[in-house]
Amino acid sequence: MKNRLLFLGPPGAGKGTQAARLCDANSMKHLSTGDLLRSEVAAGSDLGKEAEAVMNRGELVSDALVLAIVESQMKALTTDGWLLDGFPRTVPQAEALEPLLTELQQPIQAVVLLELDDAVLIERLLARGRADDNEAVIRNRLEVYREKTAPLIRFYSDKGLLVSVPAQGTVEEITKRIESVLG
Questions:
Q1: Is 113 helix (H, G, I), strand (E, B) or coil?
Q2: I want to staple 9 with a disulfide (CB 3.0 to 4.6 A). Which of 13, 43, 55, 110 is the partner?
Q3: Residue 90: φ, ψ to 5°
Q4: 89 assigned to active site
């Protein structure tokens, strides 16, 4: 089974849930950008201190800093497989990631795009009950996702790495679909 993966998909498609299941079942490292940032901050590393200062100012962490954190984590891996979730989010980020993966001799083997209708996504996100999850905010997040990620989908499709997986149904059904395309 392919075990160097990138997950793409809109908010609410189940990336985090599916990534955790796949990584647990296949001894892969789940590299979630949000978790990595929090982990670096908690560890008090130089990268973490830099990221914390940026976040405390209410700014977005730069591509270069996120890439440095991803690089630090990937170089420390003790497992054969990994799954990137939340990075890259844009074509420039993907282009910046490639030299690192080449240096590590660990190119991405597959990019899994979890696809789901907007109506189902909105329903799922509203059901989570988060304070920031109202329909207007959710629709805006979906628009931002499409604007930023559509070129990334094309980028990986052109490289022959993209596989699309319908993300409706039970968690187990979606997991089976993902595993079948990664065979």
A1: strand
A2: 13
A3: -135, 160
A4: yes
Query: The tokens of 113 are what?
Result: 């795009």
Helix 91-103 to helix 63-75 angle (10° resolution) is 30
Is 124 noted as a catalytic residue in this protein?
no
Place of tokens 């109202």: 134
Predicted model pTM: 0.88
In 3D, which of 48, 17, 16, 45 has the Cα closest to residue 32? 16
Contact between residue 74 and residue 99 where contact means Cβ atoms under 8 Å apart: no
Q: Which two tokens stand for residue 60?
A: 């977005």
CA dihedral 123, 128, 131, 132 (to 10 degrees): -60
Euclidean distance between CA atoms 91 and 148, whole angstroms: 8
Q: Per the residue annotation, which of 75, 130, 154, 159 is the catalytic one?
A: 130
The residue with tokens 């696809």 is 115
The CA distance from 79 to 58, in Å, is 34
pLDDT at 18: 97
Per-residue pLDDT averaged across 141-153, rounded? 89
The Cβ of residue 53 has, within 10 Å, a number of other Cβ atoms equal to 12
- Would residue 159 show up in a list of annotated catalytic residues for this protein? no
Q: Percentage of the chain with pLDDT > 90? A: 62
Q: What are 22-60's pLDDT values in tens digits?
A: 999 999 999 988 888 888 899 999 989 998 998 888 787
CB 110 within 8 A of CB 180: no
